[in-house]
Amino acid sequence: MPNNQLFRLPFIVVFVGMMSICGYFRYRARQSGEAIPRTSEGALLLLARLLCAAPLYLPIFAYMLNPDCMSWADLPLPTWLRWLAATVGLAALPLLYWLFSSIGRNISETTLTKEKHQLVTHGPFHWVRHPLYLVATVALISMGILAANWFMLTMACLALVGIMVFIIPREEAQLIRKFGPEYHEYMRRTGRFVPRLFQ
């Protein structure tokens, strides 16, 4: 697709921005508190994460290095839609920073809760329980549109389905175990991904 080189720069900015924000806050969380190794979740879930991560991230790196090597999955999209996706992806970066700064040291790389875990209900968590998954998915979908690549779009959507089916239920079960009625009340007044309009 001839415009791929043009859209490569905003694509790189969105992805590198996401990884930088994520990496910075996860590093701070590891330095200031307990860290739960991914192996604590068990070998099966660790393997599933790795198998999902490869088809999600390898095409992203391939596109950043050379957009033409992903041309086999080109999707004809109008230029205005790709620029809109660039705007959405770039707008996701300050949202990502806000939610990471809100959750602070409570961020975990697993579905398990830390010993000193606190229930975060401020910032974006005041309205939705899983803003990180929402913002990351929006950013990944915007990158798929920006690259005009059906494979990246498919992988982003499948990642969201996997998160909804396998990750969130495990994570919320851990939080219920940790916080009990307090988390049940939090669930009652918030939505998983979008604010609850009627309670």
List keywords for this structure.
mainly alpha, Four Helix Bundle (Hemerythrin (Met), subunit A), 199 residues
Overview of this structure, please?
This protein has one domain: Four Helix Bundle (Hemerythrin (Met), subunit A). It is built from six helices and no strands. It has helices at 4-32, 43-65, 79-103, 131-146, 150-179, 181-189.
* Number of beta-strand segments: 0
Number of helices: 6
Low-confidence spans: pLDDT under 50, at least 5 residues?
A: none
As for the number of domains, it is 1
Tell me the CATH topology: Four Helix Bundle (Hemerythrin (Met), subunit A)
Overview in brief:
This protein has 199 residues and is mainly alpha-helical. It has helices spanning 4-32, 43-65, 79-103, 131-146, 150-179, 181-189.
Layout of helices and strands, plus pairs?
Layout: H1 4-32, H2 43-65, H3 79-103, H4 131-146, H5 150-179, H6 181-189
